[in-house]
Amino acid sequence: MPAIPESSAVIADVAVENDYDGFAEAYTAENETSLLNAYYVRPAIVDLAGDVAGRRILDAGCGAGPVSAALRDRGAVVSGFDRSAKMVELARQRLGDDVDLRVADITGPLPYPDGAFDDAVAALVLHYLEDWTAPLAELRRVLKPGGRLIVVVNHPILLKMVHRETDYFATTKWSDEYNFNGQKAVLTYWHRPLHAMTDAFTAAGFRTAVISEPPPAPEAHELFPDEMARFPSGAFLSFMFFVLEAA
């Protein structure tokens, strides 16, 4: 979930295209400074990654490259791919020609050799997929033994919070409508319970090292006072963060 949705609707039978080529520029502009992306997801990923100087990191589903840029600023050697050609174009504008950026689909074979990376990041990617088997297998393949995969997905309680009638334990397709910088878009996700996530990680050859539900960056309270006033504790549930280690 890249931004706060305008409305929510469970859609069980109608497929909705996640047309990132169509709203890439609006999505990127909206989320450059948004609460959920700029002051929640990205700083949490940087914190979980720790010292990345000199580490080879793959940004899987890199979008316009903000995570890649943040990691490169901390000394990482980054590569990235996205299914959206427009998103990769925007990432090239941000990162320059010296970063290896490719158009590729995470559901198919990835264009990298075995053990090519020390770490990988799959932020706000897997929750678009019904089946995680092949994507996780490919991410495991391109990581060296002991390499880390940082995963960020919709929090598994999110759908139940919005639609109390849904079955938490079922794998369920659902959609939200968003407004990205004035452009309307619909994103469709696959909910799965927490145990289904961790089972998939284990089956793919990963050990779950960290499960995190971080607070937003401290400056979020000053920059988004109205939104943060809804959360007296200073934290909220939107995404779940994992650090996995390749066995």
Explain how this protein is built.
This is Methyltransferase domain-containing protein. Pfam families: Methyltransf_11. By secondary structure, the chain is an alpha/beta fold. The protein has one domain: Vaccinia Virus protein VP39 (Rossmann fold, 3-Layer(aba) Sandwich), CATH 3.40.50.150. The chain contains 9 helices and 10 strands. The strands form 2 sheets. Strands 4-3-2-5-6-10-9 form a 7-stranded mixed sheet, with helices on both faces. β3, α4 and β4 form a beta-alpha-beta unit. α2 packs across α3. It starts with 6 loop residues before the first strand and ends with a strand.
Q: What low-confidence regions span 5 or more consecutive residues with pLDDT below 50?
A: 1-16
Can you tell me the CATH class?
Alpha Beta
Outline, from the CA principal axes?
globular
CATH superfamily: Vaccinia Virus protein VP39
Query: End-to-end span in angstroms?
Result: 29 Å
Strand-pairing-aware structural class: alpha/beta
Share of residues in strands: 25-35%
Tell me the count of domains.
1
Q: How is the largest sheet built, in terms of strand order?
A: 4-3-2-5-6-10-9
Over all CA atoms, what is the radius of gyration?
Answer: 17 Å
Number of separate strands = 10
Q: Provide a count of the helices.
A: 9
- CATH architecture, please? 3-Layer(aba) Sandwich
Compressed to H and E, one letter per element, the order equals EHHEHEHEEHEHEEHEHHE
GO molecular function, one term: S-adenosylmethionine-dependent methyltransferase activity
Pfam families: Methyltransf_11 (PF08241)
Protein name: Methyltransferase domain-containing protein
Keywords: Methyltransferase, S-adenosyl-L-methionine, Transferase
